[in-house]
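Hi, here's the filled form for the chain we discussed.

Project: internal
Contact: R.S.
Residues: 344
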Amino acid sequence: MATCGAKAVYIRAQSEGAGMKLAVSGGMVGDYEELLRPALRMPWCIRFCPDRAALLAELGDADAVVTMSWAAGMPPAPHLRLLQLPGAGLDAVDLAAVPPTATVCNVYEHEIGIGEYVLATMLEKEIGLARLQAEIRADDWRSSLFCGGTPHGELFGKTLGIVGYGRIGRETAKRAKAFGLKVVAATRSPEKRDEQVDEIVGMAQLPQVLARADYLLIACPLSAETRGLIDRAAFAAMRRSAVLINVARGPVVDEDALYEACRDRLIAGAVIDVWYNYPKGGARIEPPSKHPLKHLDNVLMTPHVSGVSGGLLRRRWSLIANNLNRLAAGQPLLNVVRAPLSAP
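And the returned structure, exactly as it came back:
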């Protein structure tokens, strides 16, 4: 059995047999020990690696690794059979550098929280709860019909356009239909019909979706094809009353075009949860964008939290534990991104 060192957490289930080694690393892993302990059915030697150097030191005899990134130049991992991502994105994974013996898997479950977040922000844009509360707390009745105010908006009857119809798109569409919205989606696979969508088209018809959407949800992966997909031409095609919501990856929306469209009121506004700059450690925190979006009153900003709901880690670690159990038992793994290229 592999040894883990003084800070290792050794978890033994009731099953007997040789232990396998798991290295866990990264800021998205959360309280992994508490969530893994009751779910593992085989003995595992588990090492939490607080930084990159600690992870690299564990690769030599690791059977499985949970981490969000893998790059060229990593030390040899000759025993690695599972590279398990604790999230969905592959942005930081160089698949060509992953040992050929390893299966690469990911997990989702963030689509539930994101779907609720999207509906919440759309409702906020329509009703303006934060503004209304601030007014009444100041004894200000200006928005009330008693004082000549105008009615707030509603989602019913409006059109939600979705760019990228995967898990996030489906969960959001399900909730949007409950509010009486019409849902139109643009996707690479328009032949896959879904009862939650009123109309689904290919990406070549994206301009039609842009022109019809009251709310435009960006829910596609970041790739060479989607980087800068929503550019100046896309904003020009949108309604001036439209609101863009980005919960995918910042660079899917051109940063300059986004700022100009919101600043110049080419669209009604934006909801941005994903960014162009992220904390890299150290005392200095970079602004999320090179542009002063925070000074625009038509932009709602959040720090990449749309999918981080209370149940997210619980659901994800349940799936990760399931994959670890399957690996130990020699069963097929779930959510395979890349199958092994050679036998261990």
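Let me know if anything looks off before we file it.
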